[in-house]
Every structure is written in C-alpha cells, then in structure tokens.
Amino acid sequence: MLTERAIEKYILEKEPYYLPVGNEIELFTAAYQAKLPVMLKGPTGCGKTRFVEHMAWRFKRPLVTVACHEDLSATDLVGRYLLEGEETVWHDGPLTLAVKHGAMCYLDEVVEARKDTLVLIHPLTDDRRILPVEKRRVVLEAPDEFQFVISYNPGYQSVLKDLKQSTRQRFVAIEFDYPPFDIEVAIVAHEGQVDESTARDLVTIGQKVRNLRGHGLEEGVSTRLLVYAAQLIRGGISPVSACTVAIVNPITDDRDLQRSIQEIVTTVI
Ligand code: ADP
Questions:
Q1: 225 Cα–ligand 1 center, Å
Q2: Distance 131 CA to ligand 1 centre (A)
Q3: Amino acid 1: pLDDT
Q4: CATH code for 3-175?
Q5: What is the pLDDT of residues 63-101, one digit of tens each?
Q6: Does the ipTM surpass 0.95?
Q7: Which residue's CA is the nearest one to ligand 1's atom 5?
C-alpha cells in the first residue's frame, strides 16, 4: 500500500507547456508504442526535461525522474531495507517504483552515473524488459506502458565521461538543440510572461552569445537562462541587469568573455 501512495506524487495533473521543434513528438510516440528505450541528446537547458514531462502527460503515465550523479548506486535506484523501530522494511527505489507502476522513468544526465550502476539498467533496456531486485530475490517484468528515457549532453563528453557502446546501443536517440528563433521567442515570451519584443531581444542576445562557442565559451546560453532573464524583467529588474545576472555571470568566469557578452547585451537592448 505504501508504494500505491508513493506513485501518486509522480502523476502530472496539468499539461506541461511544450512547443515542438521538429518531429520529436512523433518519434517518441513511435518509440513508446514499440517499447523502445529513448535517449535524448543535447545541451543543458534546451527543453529535454520539459519534453519528457509533456510526453508523460500525453501518455497519462506517472513520471519518475532521477538526477544521476557519481555516488548513485544500484541500491539507490532499486531500493533498500531500512530499519523502522524493531522491523526492517523494504523501500522501493525510483526504478523499482517506475517498473511496478508502468511509469515513465527518466534518468537525467546519465553519464554522471557510475558504470556499474548503469549495468543494472541493461536487462530493462533490451527485449527482456526485466529488473532483477537481488535483495528481494525477485525479478520484475516491466508492463507494456513502462518507458525508459535517459538524457545525455554530448558537449561534456570526455574519455572519462562517455557512455559505453554497450549502453548507448540500447537506445534510440533523439537529438535536441536550442530551438529556432521564432519558436524560442514564443517559449521565452510564454515562460517569462514578457511581451514579444522583449523575448525577441533576449533570443537575439542568446543567438549571438551562442556564436561565441568555440571561442572560449564551452556551451552557449541555454533557453532556460533566457527564460530566467525574462522572468527577472517581468519582476521589474532592468533588462541590462537581468541579462547580467541571468546570462553574463552564470555562463563563464572569464572576465574578457564576460565583457564580450555584456557588449552583445548592450548593443541589442
Ligand atoms: P534540459 O532538460 O534540456 O536541461 P529543460 O527541459 O529543463 O532543459 O528546459 C529548460 C527550460 O526551457 C524549460 O523549463 C522551459 O521553460 C524552456 N523550454 C525549452 N525548450 C522548450 C520547448 N520546446 N517548449 C517549452 N519550453 C521549453
């Protein structure tokens, strides 16, 4: 009964706002129907998480999200026995919970997880679709509605942090990038609750800053940061200050680069 209630908080009641950029909704739907696990590739803050939320809502599945990090163990994902008073009580981990309830399970930034943790997901991501819960000596079979999704940012790729072929070749991969100009303007206007002309200025700044990629800037400014700038403007902060704290300062510590980005801001606004 505990798990019955535990899953309830993962159900999305309201439609998450998502503007499609290409045919990602059709692709994901086909993968879901074919019971294929999906990998979303792309830079941070470009809409991957929002897309998964939207798809979970479309399919009326609970969404269980796990932010991966290097200490994430197989036990964290599957579950553990915990001492409660005199008793030891089993607590499902997020993956077990998702499998049991035919949820959508989203592992965010999967490269951050340890390799031995990732091995655990292998039997779930091929046609066996099973999750061995060793501590309980049971093997759970994923129901048809269960969907496995991971996200991955190839920009951070290094020899140490790369997905092994044996893991990556278990997924179909949908590539994400920053949305095209007009779509990003609509997103920033909607999410930041600003008028279209303010959103246009912010997206123009975003596009110019993205051109600095490869010139010392590791990654361009995300849609998320443009939305933050819009929200600050909406809250009464001057556009230049909003861009300084939401765009210039977060993306680099390099003073020269910060100056170049600040110049972009002042020429556009
Ligand atoms: P990621 O998971 O790729 O790091 P998010 O999905 O969290 O990024 O996106 C960051 C923010 O950008 C979202 O909260 C949302 O406000 C906005 N966003 C980005 N792309 C879209 C889109 N296509 N439709 C609606 N909102 C979007």
A1: 10
A2: 30
A3: 44
A4: 3.40.50.300
A5: 999 999 989 999 999 999 999 999 999 999 999 999 999
A6: yes
A7: 47
Gap between the Cα atoms of 155 and 41, Å rounded:
9
Q: What is the DSSP string of 163-209?
A: --HHHHTTSEEEE--PPPHHHHHHHHHHHHT--HHHHHHHHHHHHHH
Whether 55 lines ligand 1, by a CB cut-off of 6 Å, is: no
Average pLDDT over residues 216-235: 95
- State mean pLDDT over 206-227: 92
Whose CA is closest to atom 18 on ligand 1?
47
State in Å: Cα 51 to ligand 1 middle: 7
- CA-CA distance, 193 to 182, in Å (whole number)? 16
Pick the closest to residue 230 from 180, 262, 196 (CA basis): 196
Domain boundaries, the chain: 3-175, 181-268
pLDDT given at position 219? 87
Tell me: pLDDT of 212 over 50. Answer: yes
